[in-house]
Amino acid sequence: MKLSNALWILGCTKITLAMTTNQLIKEMGLGWNLGNTLECYGDWINGNTTKDYETAWGNPVTTEAMIKTIKSYGFKSVRVPVAWSNLMSSDYTISSELLKRVDEVLNYILNNDMYAIMNIHYDGGWFDNFATSEAESFTKYEKIWKQLTQYFKKYDEHLIFESLNEEGCWDSIWNRYSNSGNKTKAYNILNTINRNFVDIVRNSGGNNANRHLLLAGYCTDIDLTVDSAYIVPKDDRVMVSVHYYTPTTFTLLEKDESWGKVQYSWGNTNDVNSLKNDFNKLKTRFVDKGINVIIGEYGVTAGNKDKESNHKYITSVVEYAKQLGICPIVWDHGQYFDRSTLTFKDTEIGQIYKDLSSNYSSNNTSSNTNNNNNNNNSNTSSSEYCSGCTITGTGGDNSIWGWENNKACRIDTTKCSEEIKNSNSGNCVKAYAQCGGENYSGVTKCCSGKCTFINQWYSMCQ
Ligand SMILES: *[C@@H]1O[C@H](CO)[C@@H](O)[C@H](O)[C@H]1NC(C)=O
Ligand SMILES: *[C@@H]1O[C@H](CO)[C@@H](O)[C@H](O)[C@H]1NC(C)=O
Ligand SMILES: *[C@@H]1O[C@H](CO)[C@@H](O)[C@H](O)[C@H]1NC(C)=O
Ligand SMILES: *[C@@H]1O[C@H](CO)[C@@H](O)[C@H](O)[C@H]1NC(C)=O
Ligand SMILES: *[C@@H]1O[C@H](CO)[C@@H](O)[C@H](O)[C@H]1NC(C)=O
Ligand SMILES: *[C@@H]1O[C@H](CO)[C@@H](O)[C@H](O)[C@H]1NC(C)=O
Ligand SMILES: *[C@@H]1O[C@H](CO)[C@@H](O)[C@H](O)[C@H]1NC(C)=O
Ligand SMILES: *[C@@H]1O[C@H](CO)[C@@H](O)[C@H](O)[C@H]1NC(C)=O
């Protein structure tokens, strides 16, 4: 959903800018990855159009119908991995065609009231260069996010930015297997990337000041991310990302390799306990301390595994993650959902997701709000930025609102700072929001006239 469509006044389900990250995690329900699509990368890719890249790894061009179908299976969030280096100029300027195409795909998600996570994915592996040409790599990183934060800043909290995928680890600096080299130095790079990421976003204006952000864990590996060397930047709206393919001999391996022997089935008591033990580490290190966690990828990509085991794996990840308040986003590069026929290849998996997602539906919290909205004006649903700067109302997220042409509109704080300063006198509008028993309250803004309490979401100066 675009900010401009925010139904601020009409009820809780559309009130999106008031959410804490903790609330967001619940709202995000279960997620799905648009894998092997906008993140396709390769010197061999023929052609120079976004479509050439989007389809290079074998998936069809993404359509809104795909996203709507995914939604119908109960998913509420879609992660969109992107390779921004495709079609990029040598000074790191992102192709405007690519920006436009990513924007289109994000809109398939946002227009269907789902949450979207957009990242810099593998992107040809240039994150390795932080080990060899650190300064230049930071320059590229910052240039990319500066462009992205400008281009996408208009979107509300349904759009989440992710600092990077799983490439945040440098074995050439610190070998995680042999524990040789300089561990501090390796972690410092990722910690600095994540810190810079938060700073770039927060300083970029628009809705980015309050946007929820996802930070890559070290290698997005659970053990390496719960390590005390990993530092979460101080910020109210950041979450940590790990990926879960444990045991890889089951999830990834199709034939025996030097490093492992294929495991065809999964799901005995030991397997499940081991998964719980892994997730418990995330709970202790992050969730219990108020830092939310997203499992940005999990799933079985190997095609030759026992069917019941596949089902049990998915179900176990989802159920235990949700039990701990963690949001799981399944990796799907086409192995689960067939984007041509718009069905799950294994229809039982489709049904599993439907059943699972109905258990985690948070429409409960979003509907029982005794929404006695006196302000019955059908035009309140549209809200561009106000043309003027007169503040008439406030929102629980510190946002400020005006009222023009019978419509609510958001005050553009980039051009109205003087008026905002001047409005801090006279009567105060206290806007606070209650939703499903939770109180997001908090902000007080002032205006010179009388204030009228419209409903739990909105107050107005008159
Ligand atoms: C894309 O490729 C075509 C021919 O393959 C060429 O004519 C065109 O100039 C290229 N466009 C860009 C933006 O590189
Ligand atoms: C490891 O890296 C850190 C940070 O770059 C540095 O301060 C420290 O001196 C290094 N340690 C060794 C043993 O090189
Ligand atoms: C949904 O939740 C109920 C109650 O906790 C549980 O009995 C049921 O198995 C769950 N369904 C799925 C598909 O997880
Ligand atoms: C929905 O709300 C009811 C009553 O408030 C509560 O008992 C139930 O557990 C909630 N269900 C979910 C899925 O949140
Ligand atoms: C939430 O809404 C979905 C779809 O309308 C419905 O299937 C589900 O039962 C609802 N859940 C609750 C807890 O009301
Ligand atoms: C609000 O407006 C709608 C559409 O015009 C109308 O159907 C409804 O009765 C109105 N509600 C109140 C409380 O006036
Ligand atoms: C909604 O806005 C349109 C155009 O701005 C106007 O013609 C219409 O009367 C408005 N409706 C209400 C209910 O205010
Ligand atoms: C929510 O916060 C407001 C403002 O602080 C307070 O007046 C109200 O009682 C709170 N409601 C609940 C249910 O805590």
Keywords summarizing the entry:
globular, binds 2-acetamido-2-deoxy-beta-D-glucopyranose, disordered N terminus, 2 domains, about 450 residues
Please identify, by name, the CATH architecture of the largest domain.
Alpha-Beta Barrel
Name the shape in a single word.
globular
Fourth-tier CATH superfamily name of the largest domain: Glycosidases
Number of helices: 13
Q: What is the CATH third-level topology name of the largest domain?
A: TIM Barrel
Q: Tell me the structural class.
A: alpha/beta
Number of domains: 2
Instruction: Tell me the Rg in angstroms.
Output: 23 Å
* Order of strands, widest sheet: 1-2-3-4-7-8-9-10
Mean pLDDT, rounded to whole units? 83
For the largest beta-sheet, the strand count, sense and barrel status come to:
8 strands, parallel, barrel
Name of the CATH first level of the largest domain: Alpha Beta
Helix content: 25-40%
Q: Show unreliable segments.
A: 1-17, 362-383, 419-449, 451-458
**How many strand segments?**
21
> In what range is the share of β-strand residues?
15-25%
Distinct compounds present:
2-acetamido-2-deoxy-beta-D-glucopyranose
Description:
This protein is of the alpha/beta class and 462 residues long. The protein has two domains: 18-369, Glycosidases (TIM Barrel, Alpha-Beta Barrel), CATH 3.20.20.80; 382-461, no CATH class. It contains 13 helices and 21 strands. The protein has helices at 21-27, 50-54, 64-72, 96-110, 134-152, 183-202, 222-226, 248-251, 269-285, 307-323, 347-359, 363-367, 417-422; strands at 31-33, 77-80, 115-119, 159-162, 174-175, 180-181, 213-216, 238-244, 292-298, 327-330, 337-338, 343-344, 393-394, 400-404, 407-410, 428-430, 434-435, 438-439, 444-446, 451-455, 458-461. The strands form seven sheets. Strands 1-2-3-4-7-8-9-10 form an eight-stranded parallel barrel, surrounded by five helices. It has a three-stranded antiparallel sheet with strand order 13-14-15, with no helix packed on it. The two termini are 30 Å apart. Belongs to the glycosyl hydrolase 5 (cellulase A) family. Residues 427-462 form the CBM1 domain. InterPro entries: CBD, CBD_sf, GH, Glyco_hydro_5, Glycosyl_hydrolase_5.
